[in-house]
Task: structure prediction
Amino acid sequence: MSTKRISLTRYLVEQQRDHGHIPSQLRLLLEVVARACKSISQAVNKGDLGGVLGSASSENVQGEVQKQLDIIANEVLIEANEWGGHLAAMASEEMEGIYVVPNRYPQGEYLLLFDPLDGSSNIDVNVSIGTIFSVLRMPEDDRGVDVGDFLQAGHRQVAAGYCVYGPQTTLVLTVGDGVAMFTLDREQGSFVLTRENVQIPEDTKEFAINMSNMRHWDAPVKRYVDECLAGKEGPRGKDFNMRWIASMVADVHRILTRGGIFMYPWDKREPEKPGKLRLMYEANPMGWLVEQAGGAATNGRQRILDIQPTRLHERVSVILGSKNEVERVTRYHLED
Ligand code: P6P
Result:
């Protein structure tokens, strides 16, 4: 481990100087999002002391009861980003429509999408949660911004990342040149580079899925999980371990750190929905991060980043992680 401490700012400046991936407006955007995540981390870390646990008296566009911290995190991200001149508009899991930057501020060329606090069901029980974000460029035309500008496939992202609020607060980021991790040094108040060129092992012995939904799964998912459960004596010839944190950020962080496969597949509880997770601000950013780290991300049949969105809050089935395992589950779907 190098003793040289490289801050997020220095990393972004050097990436721009050496690779030209991060124009100054995008660098400003990423630094503002990182600062907002620091504020969210402070609010989360206070827990009961901050009087912000528990549910608000409202529901989000998904029809889910909002936690007070969901709303606080959303407001922190909006207020941190609206004045900087780097954004045209924002979209959030917690808001039905897009948030266009008010006329009193200059408009920029980027679009920011986020799940301000993913894993909300874990907030009140002190289990890791996180913020997920995705950055798109405004389409080249001179008309005003509208929701249609956000409906771009995931391969058009220019930056993506998350901040996990766990034993450490860690920002994980890609701008299309690999994945880097920055750990928050609370004494300095700055994110410090702790890992770069993150690589996910192509094979794994660890799968993540909510097993309580087993009776609702499609045959390919059932086949894959049954084979994992059969262990050494089964067709896989090895034993598997299982994890399910019910915080996508925490499960994905584990997979980026040591490999694994994460599945939230379609199931027959709500057959009209392709899945539970949201394409624009969960599956797309996480899918790009995983691909940039040598993994794979599909909806069981096609690459997530190739899905053309039709609605801002559309859902998708998610199979992501160690490349060879994701390819196996996808093959089972295509053979079905
Ligand atoms: P379940 C959190 O609410 C979330 O959106 C993801 O972070 C997580 O992976 C999933 O839902 C958990 O869903 O049905 O297991 O509670």
Summary: The CA atoms of residues 14 and 20 lie 9 Å apart.
